[in-house]
Structures are given as structure tokens and as C-alpha cells.
Amino acid sequence: MNITMKSNLSEYNAKIGIEFDKQAAKLKAKNLKYTYIYIGFLASGAVFADLGGLIDSKISFSIAFVSTLLSWFFYRKKKRENLTEQWTYTRVVAETFKSEWFKFVVGGGDYPKKVDVDENDYKEEYKRKLREFYDEYKEAIHGLGGSYINNIDISLDEESLQIRKEGLEERLGYYQKNRMEDQMKWYEQRSMDMRTIHDKYNRFFSLVLLVGAVVGLFMMLEVFNQIQIPAIFKENDFFSILIALAFTLDAMNSARQYERLGIAYTKSFNELSDAIREIDDVNNDIRTDEEVFNDFVEDIEDKISNEHKSWSLTTSSKNIH
Question: In angstroms, what CA-CA distances link 22 with 8, 28, 87, 91, 149?
Fold first, then answer.
């Protein structure tokens, strides 16, 4: 089944490839929903398996058994739909479109500013590449049994063409502000968010694990038999319940990949910071030489590309370009 969406490809930055961004967000949300459901049912099964002293043992075991079956069902459903792979391909094509547009409008990479080359040749090359990227994406999504976006618009509007007509100083300024600095701010905020959430998960995981260890120690030393506490604590294996909860938290943390993403965003932020310092270096010819500027843009786009292509390392996808 195809998804038809109107595209505004030539608008600046976040608007480029926005249809892919929206589709990727839906895929990620669906993937996380299935992940949380199957982990939740798995944890529920473990908890009810240890609550025989609180409720009837047959009821407790039945709930644990059904929860485990439901966990398996949603796990298989998540895997069959290849949601992680679909999300990866969709995000990569979104960022690839964005990267190609920036290279074209500022005269970087395969679109240098040369007086002896017909500008229409570059326009056609730009469109050819986007069609090629789109075809690769469509074939990949189709092969995974997913729904791909159809009817994309790869035309270039007057705003895009006007930026390309500007002088080197103006194009460099536009690129620095609207690509490099904008991307840096995004990396900075996202890296801080990822580290904060990861630390919260780790603290909560450690707390639950510590409480579980204390409960286990008390059970081993038969402390609960020597003090007056409600029978519920004596008749149920809260040690196993707390350990199951701790590893459920760890599984959810791993599913969101907060630590890995935080490291990747920090690395990309530092690389762009170094690149901006190159622009301000009076001994660098980026501001005065079209060829140096061209190579500089290509290098920056490669750095940004390395960050979003690294998503493929967390999937079973192959040949992500």
C-alpha cells in the first residue's frame, strides 16, 4: 500500500523531506509501543509467577502464562513488521534529501559554482540523485513489507535558486547559520536530553536493584521470620519481583538507546564546532576560494551523514546508502 503526501522539498532545512520525517516518527512510535507492550507483558508474567502467596496459585500461574504468551505475540508482531528497519531507511532518506539540497543551493559537493558549466546540468543532476535515493528507499520499504511514501516533489523553487546565485561570502554565511549552527544546536540539545534520561533510568535501575538485593539478603538470613511484618512479605518472592522490575527498566532504557544516541550527538556537535572554528581561521581559504569551500561543504555533509547513517548499526538492515 502506498502513502500519498504532498511534498515541499525545496523549503529550508527541516521542511526538506518533511514527509519522510513524519513517516519515520510514526514508525518509531509504533515500534516503541510494541516494545513496551512485550516487555511489560514479560515483566507482568514474571511478577505474577511469584505472587502465589498473595492470590490463588492457579490464578497467579494462569495470569503469568497468558502474559508470557502475549509478550511473545507482540514481540513476533514487532519483528514481522520490520519497524526498526523501516524507520532506519526512512530517516536516512530524509536526511540524505536534506543534505543534497544544502549542497546544491550553496554550491558544494557535486554542484560547484563554475562559469563554464550550464546550471541546468546541475539542476538535472540534483533531481537525478534525489530520484535515485527515493527509488532505493522505495525498494527497501517494499522489500520489508511496509508502506512507502509516494508522489514526492523534487522541483526547485525560486528561493533555492536565488541562494545559489549569491556570492561565496553570502552562501558561506547562509550555510554556517542555517545548516551548521542549526544542526549544532539540535545536537547539543539532543545530547543533553539523552544523557539526562539515561542517567535517570540508571539511578532508578540501581535503586530497584539495591532494594531487591536487600530483600534477598533478608530472605536468605530469614530476617522476615524474626520480625513482625505483614504476611504478604513472607509468602511472596519480592526478591524476584524487584529483580524482574529492575531488568524491565534496563530493557526499556536499552530499547530507546539513550546512551548510544547521546554519544553520537555529542561527537557530531564537537565536529561541527571544530568546523566553524576553521571558517574563522584567517589562514583558511574557505571564504575566498570556491574549490576549498566546495570541499568544505562536502566534508561537513559527510560528518552529518555519518551520524544519521550510524542508525543502521542498531538494525539488521543491509546496504543502507
Answer: 13, 10, 11, 10, 10
**One-letter identity of residue 15:** K
- Burial of 134-153, coded b for 16+ CB within 10 Å and e otherwise, reads bebbbebbeebebebbeebe
Distance CA 237, CA 12 (A): 58
From the list 129, 143, 75, the residue with the least C-alpha distance to 100 is 129
Taking residue 251's Cβ as centre, other Cβ atoms within 10 Å add up to: 15
pTM of the complete model: 0.75
Q: What pLDDT does residue 142 have?
A: 94
**Pick the residue with more confidence: 96 or 7?**
96
Q: Which residues pair with 149 in a beta bridge?
A: 3
As to burial, measured by CB atoms within 10 angstroms (0-12 exposed, 13-18 middle, 19+ buried), residue 20 is buried
CB 113 within 8 A of CB 107: yes
211-241 confidence digits (pLDDT tens):
777 766 766 656 555 655 555 555 555 666 6
